[in-house]
Amino acid sequence: MQSTRTDDPPLSERTGAQSATQVVILAAGKGTRMKSSLPKVLHPLRGAPLIAHSLRLARAVTDALPIVVVGHDAQAVAAAVGQGGQCVVQSPQLGTGHAVMAVADHFAATGALPPQRVVVMAADMPLVRPETVSALVEEQTRSGAALVLLSVTADQPRGFGRIVRDAAGEVYAIVEEIDCTAEQRAIRELNASVYCFDGPWLWQAVRQLQPNPRKGEYFLTDLVTVAVREGRRVKAWMGEAEESIGINTLADLADADAVLRRRINRTHMLNGVRIVDPATTYIDLDVEIEAEVQILPNTHLMGSTRVGAASVIGPNSVLRDAIIGRRCRVRQSTVEEARMDDDSDAGPYAHLRPGAHVCAGAHVGNYAEIKNSTLGAGSRMGHFSYLGDATVGANVNIGAGAITCNYDGVNKHPTVIEDDVFIGSDTMLVAPVTVGKGARTGAGAVVTRNVPPDTLVVGLPARAIRKLKAGS
Ligand code: UD1
Ligand code: CA
Fold first, then answer.
1. Ramachandran angles phi, psi of 302, nearest 5°
2. 143 and 87, same structural domain?
3. What is the pTM of this model?
4. 173-213 pLDDT, tens per residue?
5. How many CB atoms lie within 10 A of CB 37?
6. Which domain holds residue 96?
7. Is there a single domain that holds both residue 212 and residue 317?
8. Residues near ligand 1 (Cβ within 6 A)
């Protein structure tokens, strides 16, 4: 077995010191049952890869950097872990027990003492709650058991290991489905693959594991048998059924998504967000919403979206990495990597694309598209129009059907529209071009040259016909 580090280990800095609780996340498996080329732990769930859910859980339990065992597609998984954990490579991947051996080897190689407690969790159990893991840690600390495992009771066993108890009701073994007798197969008390171990015990016990005769893999679950054989205590902490959905297939992923979605919606509602129809409201894990926001049906708030107080979003809207201010209104629209400041509105059927910035009080109406452009404070763009690579000042009116012709087939060019400009309906602004402060364009103008301030231009190509203000 090889065990190598993929990044600089903070562990070596602690050499000689014994850390209290170390979390180990098992993420080296391929996830064959997903039937996908993407490694299982990189499949997204509510806007974050599975592995990010485990890292978040680990952080809730201890400040110490978690160790992530990677193997299958190790580089991609390590990239997703980033600074959030320290990766240890398990190669080849010979089972969950073997994965923990890789971590024990890694500790031995750095000369670090075993941690007092080691929490091991599979990276495919995203619904386990932080309170539950903390309870396992407390129970292990209190009881001194060799291990405390998380047990869940669920109607659907999803191929989980069955928890077998002796006549006295003590945990006696975990039997994997392939090894179950018909009687054991009927057991609905399942191993959730989250454990808190006595650290020094784990480091030596894991070396006693033998490969499972049927599968040839080292099963972490066989440590229960090792502990029972040594007369050490094994305790089970009962989790909630909702925590029992492990991700082995894409069907499991959808089940977990439904549970997590309900939890996220509920948290926002308890924080004062009015969600009219939770069943059709899809909010990612990292979205932030202030109180008194209203979310109307069939709305997706994705990625790092933030919504300010008293805004109304939806129905039928998709916001991804959007920053929405206070008292904004977004109706049947798509907002991606874009920003709307306080009291602005968009839609119905507007599309704010990356780099769009709608300033305070500005109005974006139906069939409007904005990309990499600023629409200044109080400006209005009411009807089917396009702004690309444009800077629009304050108090500007963009007429129906007006567009920036920002692309000449080779390059993109900027358009500048200064404050208080009136762009007539169906104006073509052929970039690069600047329309000076207070200027106007006539309906259907094709503007190919800069327009001085306070000037009216009309025609094709647009020519100045009148000064709008004496002296300018
Ligand atoms: C495992 C448990 C089972 C439990 C179930 C709950 C064992 C033998 N079985 O089964 O009792 O009910 O989880 O979810 O532990 N992994 C590695 N290296 C490996 C193999 C797996 O890091 O060599 C990782 C996987 O990436 C995964 C986790 O360990 O995150 C669990 O592996 P998986 O193959 O999904 O185990 P299960 O068959 O679900
Ligand atoms: Ca699994």
1. -120, 160
2. yes
3. 0.90
4. 999 999 999 999 999 999 999 999 999 999 999 999 999 99
5. 6
6. 11-250
7. no
8. 26-29, 69, 71, 90, 93-96, 98-99, 122-125, 160-161, 174, 176, 190-193, 219-221, 246, 248
